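Q: Structure tokens for this one, please.
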Amino acid sequence: PAELPQFSSTECCSEFPFPRTQSIDPHTFMKSRKDRKFKTLLLLAFIIVLSGAVIAVNFVYRSVDDSSRTVLIDIPRGDGFLQIIDKLDQAGLVTNRPLFTTLAILKGAARQIRAGEYELSSSMTPVEIIAKLVKGEIKFYMVTIPEDLTVREIAALLAANKLVKESNFLDLARDGRFVASLGIAGDSLEGYLYPETYKLDRSMGSREIIQIMNRQFWKRFTPEMRKRAAELGMTINEVVTMASLIGKETGFKDEKPLISAVFHNRLGMGMKLQSDPTAVYDLEEFDGKIRRSHLLRDAPHNTYRIKGLPPGPIANPDIDSLKAALYPVKTDYLYFVSNNNGSHDFSSNLTAHCQAVSRYQILRKK
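A: Here is the predicted structure, written as tokens:
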């Protein structure tokens, strides 16, 4: 083999130089490590924030569950924010309490939730539930108060709809100071709760509902009607009392002015009104049949025993009865008797009246 070329050490190093080992600055090395660590933490924080945002958005805009349960939440006056959250949680409408509470605070719910009953659904999202609470979209009840109900019957009807406590309503309806504050010259609200269809909610309570119904009465009892009452020499309470008798005697609008005429004529002649409904007004239990024993009762409103009008209304009349009390037809009728179909037969003298009574009694027996 050919001999390899010989190089001197100087030539070798000059032709094939080896890299020299560089020295590393320790401060630069530590700074680089810190930068990498900071960037890692920053990335981790970003991932956590992003994940939290995704979870929060998913929570806010996702329905509570897919069952579409309807839940009624009653929020009485005086309930605090955390108490309301408790009720929602107990009803199964809160899947993440910390997130729900935070969202409610951000939406201003802590101070803006209106008392009342809310109809919510599990198909709603948390943001929808909170929006409904903040807007005060409470559940309303359309309640019709028929004409000629007594205060006791109205209280029972409202209590059946869970809008009032019956005893509280009756106590307030007989509270002298409260009655006087409504401009009523009497010891009861009987006659002054106008029969109408009302939009009510369970946060109102007895006082507010009574005020609503009474305002409707004064709205219907116009200044012209007040003037007419003065022309007849009657107080408002006397007009309302007569109207309540008229309404209890007949439900026929066209017949009411005739019933009114009979009562006005009897009052003018000093005759007892002898209105059957007055004899049973104060009975707590009544089966609907008026008997002779009822007519003989010594009761404050019984017009078979007292002369003139009763001391106050016996029901809550509508506008037709109120107008009839103020505008009776001109007639000499003094008597009337039911003809078995809800209307009445009218007579000007006792003989004709007795004949009518006998005739309809025979028909009733047949």
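A few notes: The chain has a mean pLDDT of 86. Strands lie at 70-75, 116-121, 141-144, 197-200, 335-338, 344-347.
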